[in-house]
Amino acid sequence: MTLTTEPPLTTSSAAAPPASGRPRPGLLTGLSHVALVVWALLVVLPLLWTLLASFKDNTEIFGDALQLPAELRWDNWARAWSKANVGTYLLNTVIVVAAGTFGTMLLGSMAAYVLARYRFPGNRLIYYLFVSGMAFPVFLALVPLFFVVDQVGLLNTHTGLVLVYIAYSLPFTIFFLASFFKTLPTSVAEAAMIDGASHVRTFFQVMLPMARPGLVSITIFNVLGQWNQYLLPLVLLSGAKDKWVITQGIADISTIAGYEADWPGLFAALSMSIIPVVVVYAVFQRQIQSGLTSGALK
Amino acid sequence: MSQSTGMPGEMNRRQLLRRIGLTALAAGPGAGLLSACATAGSGGADARTPATPAATAATSAANPLGVDPKKPLEVVIFNGGNGDGYATGLHQPLYRKAYPQAEIKHVPTQKIGTQLRPRFVSGDVPDVVNNSGPEALDMAALAAEGHLADLTALFDAPSIDDPGKKVRDTLVGGVQENSLIDGVPHVLNYTVAHRALWYNAKLFAAKGWTVPKTWDAFLALGEEAKKAGITLFAYPGQVGPFYQVWNLVYTAAKIGGNQVIVDIDNLADGAWTNPAVLASVTAWADLQARYGDKAYFGLDHTQTQIKHLQDKVAFYPCGSWLENEMAKDKPDSFEYAIAPVPSVTATDKLPAEAIMVGVSEAFFASAKGPNPAGGLEYLRIMLSREGARGYTERTKNLTVVNGVAEGLDLPPAVRSAAKAQDAAGRNTITDARFESWYKELFDHSQTQTNAVMAGRVTPEQFCANMQKKADEIKKDSSVSKQTRSA
Amino acid sequence: MFTRLRAFGFVAGFLVVPAVLYLAFVINPYVQAFQIALTDWRGVSRAPGFVGLENFARLWDDQAFWQALRNHGVLLVTLPLVTIALALFFAYLLNLGGGGASGTMRGVRWSGFYRVVFFLPQVLAVAVVGVLFKAVYRPDESGVVNGALIKLGLEPVGWLTEPGLALWSIIAVMVWQAVGFYVVLFSAGMAAIPRDVFEAAALDGAGRVRMFLSITLPLLWDTVQVGWVYLGIAAFDGFALVQVLSVDRGGPDGATTVLPLEIWKTAFSYSKFGYASAMGVALFFMTITFAALTLRVTRRERIEF
């Protein structure tokens, strides 16, 4: 069941032939709408509430939850911006995630391709060694990992963090892409090889483009996963506050909120970290969704 | 929010009053000025800390610890309720003034453990650590590895302000007792805190309420408060049920004497099934059921403290750092005042006035750091008049240094605490040390406290469950044991 | 012969960098963690004492460990079940819910909009979601839910403080975050089902419920199982949410605790790194077993069309 990147079925009424004589089941359609609207509200309301709370003061946050802020208190945002260094941390995060995801995709697809399509002794062993990494709780490795990174002199550097991100993203990436490469038809690759293309060229010029849907979807997974990482940077960047990523900033201000009771500042920082993600997502949602689905379905 | 704890057994009323400048009668520092210049021993390294001053500079009167003036110093500060401004704005400049060539690296953090644990294993350790917060390092484990500098040299060194006086003689009583790990002084608790119930003096004045001294009066006030739409008592159950753990054990000590807590700390047989513990837990659980509000089981400490400031709660169990923590949100209509826990029975061992007075905010110097002498010197600077007074000025917390806070504009909470200690006299409640000694037991006590206060277990079951856990820990050979005599 | 050599060179060349990185930064620390599980290491010493399998023996009568396992059991059943059921329902409505029984199968109006909104929670960091739902579940009138309940004259509910309710409240957040992803996943699957299958069924007089059960679900079964594996692995985690949301870290009375949280507490609060590592090894084998079992069970013939 190979799926093309054809976008999911939408409401384009042009595609719908005229309804036949039977009456539309209005009640059922109505109920469907109710269910969808309810879920949409469940998703949107907490986010909206966070945005509103970022303009409240403590008294309002600790008052009636459904009340609007009396005024737009932008100083909450200013405070959060300077205290949580949201700008710097967002930029750092973008750099680290971009490099980390690129490296993960490059190395992951190379390894997955080889493991999926070449027979050689130890293939299964290497594959399962990679895949078993998915099952281990990361924080157990934290202390030993610290020493490893320290020994190679990459502690408190973005390079070190990126390499570790790549290493920890490999298991899922390889697990996913290996099964994806297996589903690709062998004929095209064989044809390319007969034409004299090298293995490397076949991979980059034939197989990778064919695997594009799967690559897009796993890229999204990796971006989301690395964007959300908290424990690894906490340990590996602890000594360099100017290199922190956004989750560290949020956790930092969240802890500070607990000590200084600065809840508006916390919600402002939350909003600041949510909004760019939502904007990026809104812009790319079509690509994300089509890529995600076509890939995940194999 | 302060978590580590300790207790100055003998810190008396006069010392405290002198420190915060409430009485002109207390002897001033003049006595020290007159004393002969007894050169205190510079306190070499002892057998436990061989790493100490092997390569340090020679000692002198101005430099009794033998600090190498060129060596850099790294200081890690827990950036919690007290911030880290006192370190960057005060203690570090003081150190730099004394040793202008020394470079100071300042590291603020809220995750002491996550950040420092790997460094202690690797041997790349900071020189001074403010070991505080929810991720504080296990001091006994550090001591066992020889990471903690012996503070004897510090305590025996001359005070910066008065070379005729040893540092130990400038400190309140409980500091040294609480510095001991396996009998060796390793931990410097820097602040003094008072713990009991807090209320809004202005609210009580406006309502014509008086602070209850007996449990019956407490319950009667609960009835009054209920009519006024106020919850008599609340503790934060989401994060920080330990405020109520303290409350339960301090109340038990009030009923049965400080020995109750000593037994608990020593993991003595039947310490938790002591009738005093049962009476305390029964009284509090009953009060919660009658006049409490279950919403607070789901709120954390700052949320509960804000509700307290909004006069939705009459009494809140906490320590004297409370006002500083809430300073930004405190309305003018609120004035913090401390109230001892009312007497549960007519035959309580300690009088109604008894409150808990203890030392907290642990600091240590590393024995195996690059600059152990500098670490001790940094602590000595913290214990100087300028260092300690400035700390109190900035954080509104009293330090363990005697007589340095005169004339400071201290907040009502601290003044109220001093008055309460005055009233308590020698009847102070001792601290419970199982909190830092046996974290697992302490965590269990928090879970059990939430359970018993919500009525999910009976007070009898609470005692039995706690005793069971204490017995398990006692048998657990992987947990190193500490003991106390009083 | 030469081609085979070339192939081996290629294989080695492609594998060496990922393998080195993986060995250095993942396998190496994990092997060390397995070794730590056999010691009494307390986190700060260089030479921990070897205790053999004592840490594993201790797991047998560790109540917190078993409580965490029970909670994982509940998560393992409910999280995939609820998420997949909701996602299938919404995906069906979005794709086919708007059509008449005439056989014109199409989505409801604004289905594009819903797809965007539903997916939104997926892009939020778990730490953010945790803080957000703390505000939603607040037990007094300042909580988003309880504020509304009080407005309606109802009693506020202790979403996270009632032992019988707390785990469900946390599962609800996990479902909240996950549903959108599976809606999109299933939507694509449904879009791939040829339209004429439905039209034929509709002509035969099949209702929408029948069509769902007899056409959509069987043809989507493969995708559903993929979802089941993802959600199952997620059910063995839950650390971040439980740590931020729950009362008293995994409370009340351990009702919401999960193994990663117990490991975290044992290691970083109690400094028992050896014992915590033993728990981690146990968790490792459980997750591996689950994944292997599920993959074996789900490896079945695909329905081709």
From TrEMBL, chain A:
<dbReference type="GO" id="GO:0005886">
    <property type="term" value="C:plasma membrane"/>
</dbReference>
<dbReference type="InterPro" id="IPR035906">
    <property type="entry name" value="MetI-like_sf"/>
</dbReference>
<dbReference type="GO" id="GO:0055085">
    <property type="term" value="P:transmembrane transport"/>
</dbReference>
<keyword id="KW-0472">Membrane</keyword>
<keyword id="KW-0813">Transport</keyword>
<keyword id="KW-0812">Transmembrane</keyword>
<protein>
    <submittedName>
        <fullName>Sugar ABC transporter permease</fullName>
    </submittedName>
</protein>
<feature type="transmembrane region" description="Helical">
    <location>
        <begin position="202"/>
        <end position="224"/>
    </location>
</feature>
<keyword id="KW-1003">Cell membrane</keyword>
<feature type="transmembrane region" description="Helical">
    <location>
        <begin position="27"/>
        <end position="49"/>
    </location>
</feature>
<dbReference type="Pfam" id="PF00528">
    <property type="entry name" value="BPD_transp_1"/>
</dbReference>
<comment type="similarity">
    <text>Belongs to the binding-protein-dependent transport system permease family.</text>
</comment>
<feature type="region of interest" description="Disordered">
    <location>
        <begin position="1"/>
        <end position="21"/>
    </location>
</feature>
<feature type="transmembrane region" description="Helical">
    <location>
        <begin position="161"/>
        <end position="181"/>
    </location>
</feature>
<feature type="transmembrane region" description="Helical">
    <location>
        <begin position="89"/>
        <end position="115"/>
    </location>
</feature>
From TrEMBL, chain B:
<dbReference type="InterPro" id="IPR006311">
    <property type="entry name" value="TAT_signal"/>
</dbReference>
<keyword id="KW-0813">Transport</keyword>
<dbReference type="Pfam" id="PF01547">
    <property type="entry name" value="SBP_bac_1"/>
</dbReference>
<feature type="signal peptide">
    <location>
        <begin position="1"/>
        <end position="40"/>
    </location>
</feature>
<dbReference type="InterPro" id="IPR006059">
    <property type="entry name" value="SBP"/>
</dbReference>
<dbReference type="InterPro" id="IPR022386">
    <property type="entry name" value="Chitin_NgcE"/>
</dbReference>
<comment type="similarity">
    <text>Belongs to the bacterial solute-binding protein 1 family.</text>
</comment>
<dbReference type="InterPro" id="IPR050490">
    <property type="entry name" value="Bact_solute-bd_prot1"/>
</dbReference>
<keyword id="KW-0732">Signal</keyword>
<protein>
    <submittedName>
        <fullName>Carbohydrate ABC transporter, N-acetylglucosamine/diacetylchitobiose-binding protein</fullName>
    </submittedName>
</protein>
<dbReference type="GO" id="GO:0030313">
    <property type="term" value="C:cell envelope"/>
</dbReference>
TrEMBL record, chain C:
<keyword id="KW-1133">Transmembrane helix</keyword>
<dbReference type="InterPro" id="IPR035906">
    <property type="entry name" value="MetI-like_sf"/>
</dbReference>
<keyword id="KW-0472">Membrane</keyword>
<feature type="transmembrane region" description="Helical">
    <location>
        <begin position="165"/>
        <end position="191"/>
    </location>
</feature>
<feature type="transmembrane region" description="Helical">
    <location>
        <begin position="212"/>
        <end position="236"/>
    </location>
</feature>
<feature type="domain" description="ABC transmembrane type-1">
    <location>
        <begin position="69"/>
        <end position="294"/>
    </location>
</feature>
<comment type="similarity">
    <text>Belongs to the binding-protein-dependent transport system permease family.</text>
</comment>
<dbReference type="GO" id="GO:0055085">
    <property type="term" value="P:transmembrane transport"/>
</dbReference>
<feature type="transmembrane region" description="Helical">
    <location>
        <begin position="273"/>
        <end position="295"/>
    </location>
</feature>
<keyword id="KW-0813">Transport</keyword>
<dbReference type="GO" id="GO:0005886">
    <property type="term" value="C:plasma membrane"/>
</dbReference>
<feature type="transmembrane region" description="Helical">
    <location>
        <begin position="7"/>
        <end position="31"/>
    </location>
</feature>
<feature type="transmembrane region" description="Helical">
    <location>
        <begin position="74"/>
        <end position="95"/>
    </location>
</feature>
<feature type="transmembrane region" description="Helical">
    <location>
        <begin position="116"/>
        <end position="137"/>
    </location>
</feature>
<dbReference type="InterPro" id="IPR051393">
    <property type="entry name" value="ABC_transporter_permease"/>
</dbReference>
